[in-house]
């Protein structure tokens, strides 16, 4: 007996792009509208309808494709359909009607070459470019050159993305010059958007709010970390079995910022913050210990079960470092050029392969998120991004994390077991 497969039912806004056979289809707008689901379902339906068709599913890196888009496609779009098999070793799905769907990335020549080998004579019928704001214009040109498939009367490239800067080639060519059929959506167009998700979008500020909540192609004027995106935010908490550390920027009239950080195998997680003005050093350290007890509890002797392994921060904060040491928390600092520390942080936010190591808890760290997305800026005029220092103010949590990242992540750092031998201060 043939098992019935539940049909895909487009949302109202998805019906028109579902039917659209334009050579290039752009799905954009705010986060959570259902762009990716529509693209995946349309690609799958095309391959099911036209025997022997060749499809390609792309993100900038094959690693990000494998760990996210492929999983969703396999579990949600294909499901348990016996007519489709996943050949993981070959990075492709094979259809009973002879169609294939290859997936991969375009971060380097090796990944490009793997994609070039897809299809007869290198020709392709249908391509989906996910998170397309990460792709270069040359990536797009290479895709267009492959659209020579003949399995169906029409071919299509679907470009799905949240907005980026207005100068991006997607905005300049596909939207302004009209080279694509453009469909915009928002989380409000998706009835499956939860109240919690909509609230998280409402909490965004600055450039993230304009792009991810409002769906606008706007420039992050003067923002130091203009590569920060919603993908850098998380609801996940720390692993209770792993150690954690602190980052701090000293202050009294200006806020003293203390961040709780955990290094995990695949990420750097900032999972909590303290952000206080007019706190004496001992009061701030007491607040740290109290937060540790709230999260990890006390042992049989009444001492905290877990304290930070190290606190890293302002070189001039000698009194605060001494208070940390009295609380059995190792405290260190290392002077460095601001621009060098910023480079390390930018790599954590998003490296050259599109990997976003830095993850910030969206509920627990509102001040860090506010600074990094809105407050931490270069001078409005004359800023040279390669060597210009940001403006003072609205930088306390950002400075704390920069101190920590340069010491603990920067390439010069000695192994952790040697850190204790370094002089304090």
Mean pLDDT: 89
Instruction: Give, in spatial order, the strands making up the sheet with the most strands.
Output: 3-4-5-2-6-7-1-8
Question: What would CATH call the architecture of the largest domain?
Answer: 3-Layer(aba) Sandwich
SSE succession: HEHEHEEEHEHEHEHHEEEEHEHEHEHHH
Strand element count: 15
CATH level-1 class of the largest domain: Alpha Beta
**Low-confidence segments, ≥5 residues, pLDDT <50?**
412-425
Q: Largest sheet, described in full?
A: 8 strands, mixed
CATH topology of the largest domain: Rossmann fold
Structural class of the secondary elements?
A: alpha/beta
Globally, the shape reads elongated
Q: So how many helices? A: 14
Helical coverage, percent range: 25-40%
User: What is the CA-CA span between the terminal residues?
Assistant: 74 Å
Quickly count the domains.
Answer: 2
Summarize the topology:
Elements: H1 15-19, E1 24-29, H2 35-49, E2 54-58, H3 62-78, E3 84-87, E4 92-95, E5 100-104, H4 109-116, E6 126-130, H5 137-144, E7 156-160, H6 169-176, E8 181-185, H7 195-203, H8 206-213, E9 233-234, E10 245-249, E11 256-264, E12 267-276, H9 281-296, E13 311-313, H10 318-326, E14 331-332, H11 338-349, E15 358-361, H12 366-375, H13 396-408, H14 416-419
Parallel strand pairs: 1-7, 1-8, 2-5, 2-6, 6-7, 9-15, 10-13, 12-15, 13-14
Antiparallel strand pairs: 3-4, 4-5, 10-11, 11-12
Helix pairs in contact: 9-10, 11-13
């Amino acid at each position: 007996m043939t098992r019935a497969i539940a049909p895909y039912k487009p949302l109202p806004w998805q019906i028109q792009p579902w039917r659209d056979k334009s050579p290039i289809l752009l799905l954009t707008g705010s986060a959570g509208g259902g762009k990716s689901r529509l693209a995946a379902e349309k690609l799958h339906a095309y391959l099911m309808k036209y025997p022997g068709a060749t499809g390609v599913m792309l993100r900038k890196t094959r690693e990000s494709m494998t760990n996210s888009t492929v999983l969703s496609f396999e579990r949600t779009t294909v499901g348990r359909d016996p007519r489709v098999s996943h050949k993981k070793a070959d990075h492709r799905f094979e259809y009973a009607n002879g169609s294939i769907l290859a997936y991969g990335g375009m971060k380097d020549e090796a990944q490009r070459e793997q994609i070039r080998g897809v299809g007869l004579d290198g020709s392709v019928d249908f391509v989906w470019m996910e998170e397309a704001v990460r792709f270069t214009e040359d990536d797009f040109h290479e895709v267009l050159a492959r659209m020579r498939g003949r399995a169906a009367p029409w071919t299509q490239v679907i470009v799905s993305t949240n907005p980026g800067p207005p100068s991006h080639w997607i905005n300049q060519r596909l939207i302004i010059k009209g080279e694509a059929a453009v469909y915009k959506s928002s989380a409000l167009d998706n009835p499956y958007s939860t109240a919690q998700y909509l609230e998280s979008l409402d909490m965004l500020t600055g450039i993230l709010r304009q792009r991810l909540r409002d769906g606008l192609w706007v420039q992050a004027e003067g923002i130091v970390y203009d590569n920060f995106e919603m993908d850098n935010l998380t609801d996940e908490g720390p692993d209770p079995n792993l150690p954690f550390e602190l980052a701090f920027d000293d202050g009294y009239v200006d806020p003293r910022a203390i961040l709780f950080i955990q290094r995990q195998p695949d990420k750097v997680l900032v999972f909590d913050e303290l952000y206080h003005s007019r706190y004496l050093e001992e009061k701030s350290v007491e607040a740290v210990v109290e937060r540790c007890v709230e999260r990890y509890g006390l042992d049989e002797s009444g001492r905290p079960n877990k304290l930070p392994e190290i606190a890293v921060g302002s070189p001039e904060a000698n009194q605060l470092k001494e208070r940390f040491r009295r609380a059995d928390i190792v405290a260190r600092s290392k002077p460095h050029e601001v621009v060098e520390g910023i480079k390390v942080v930018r790599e954590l936010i998003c490296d050259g392969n599109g990997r976003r190591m830095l993850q910030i808890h969206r509920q627990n760290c509102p001040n860090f998120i506010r600074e990094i997305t809105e407050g931490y800026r270069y001078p409005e005029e004359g800023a040279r991004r390669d060597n210009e220092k940001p403006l003072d103010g609205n930088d306390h949590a950002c400075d704390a994390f920069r101190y920590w990242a340069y010491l603990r992540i920067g390439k010069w750092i000695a192994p952790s077991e040697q850190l204790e031998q370094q002089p304090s201060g």
